[in-house]
């Protein structure tokens, strides 16, 4: 090989490396409580401070809270635990609950780590699991706002976590996902595929059965007005905001009426406005 050929090959190799950089090594998992998975190049970035609320501020979801807390604590202790799908109404605390429970359990079991995986990065989940499989820590793999459209093939990658292929799901990994949809796909799409398929019972079985692979289904439903007001009262008590009860009730109801909805998110948005008017820092 001539010197010119060698130089050309070196340049080609350098160009390919820039286009597809080598994956970075796994981080020091003791450096943080949470990590975010990124691709191009593959890397786990530590999160110095996880954005979350305290568990005692989550009102109206007691049953889901207790179920997920028990499951997480068993997992942190090294026992078997289920993957969990938190589904239901927007703004009712699904993702907040996952992060709050991690904080609660990690107080006693600091080796429990939270790893966030974006839905669009699901095809890379096998590479992520390779980083986690051999680590001594235990990991909650968290995928927020999970759903799939008609031509979306990402759901196949999710089976690597739920079923694990011939290797099986890593013993030190459990998946918690949130979704507004119980079956992770729109109801009208389910009906359309069933009505147009040669075998309706098999048309969407693969996608619909994906949700069946979660051992825990935790439903989150719209809150009542009393629950909505109780959320705001809890925030006021926690942050020391004092307002005449009748004034607080009237303003809170007016706020939710203008939004056309009641939820934990709407309650927090009202309280954020209230605290700002009262000169209270959150």
Automatic annotation (TrEMBL):
Record-linked Gene3D superfamilies: P-loop containing nucleotide triphosphate hydrolases
Stored InterPro entries: DUF815, P-loop_NTPase
Pfam families xref list: DUF815
Classification via PANTHER family: SLR0930 PROTEIN
Name of this protein: ATPase
């Amino acid at each position: 090989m001539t010197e010119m050929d060698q130089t050309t090959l070196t340049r080609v190799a350098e160009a390919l490396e820039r286009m597809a950089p080598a994956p970075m090594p796994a981080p020091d998992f003791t450096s943080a409580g949470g990590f975010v998975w990124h691709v191009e190049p593959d890397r786990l970035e530590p999160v110095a401070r996880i954005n979350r609320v305290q568990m005692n501020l989550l009102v109206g979801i007691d049953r889901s809270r207790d179920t997920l807390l028990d499951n997480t604590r068993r997992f942190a202790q090294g026992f078997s635990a289920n993957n969990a799908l938190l589904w239901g109404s927007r703004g009712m605390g699904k993702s907040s609950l996952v992060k709050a429970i991690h904080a609660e359990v990690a107080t006693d079991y600091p080796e429990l780590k939270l790893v966030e995986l974006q839905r669009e990065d699901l095809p890379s989940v096998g590479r992520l699991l390779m980083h986690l499989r051999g680590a001594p820590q235990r990991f909650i793999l968290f995928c927020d706002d999970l759903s799939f459209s008609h031509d979306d093939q990402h759901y196949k990658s999710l089976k690597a976590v739920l079923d694990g292929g011939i290797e099986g799901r890593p013993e030190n990994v459990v998946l918690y996902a949130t979704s507004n949809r119980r079956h992770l796909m729109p109801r009208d799409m389910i009906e359309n595929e069933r009505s147009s398929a040669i075998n309706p019972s098999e048309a969407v079985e693969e996608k619909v059965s994906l949700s069946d692979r979660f051992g825990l289904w935790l439903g989150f439903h719209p809150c009542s007005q009393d629950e909505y007001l109780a959320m705001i009262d809890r925030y006021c008590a926690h942050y020391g905001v004092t307002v005449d009860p009748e004034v607080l009730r009237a303003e809170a109801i007016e706020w939710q009426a203008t939004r056309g909805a009641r939820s934990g998110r709407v309650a927090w948005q009202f309280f954020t406005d209230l605290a700002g008017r009262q000169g209270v820092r959150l």
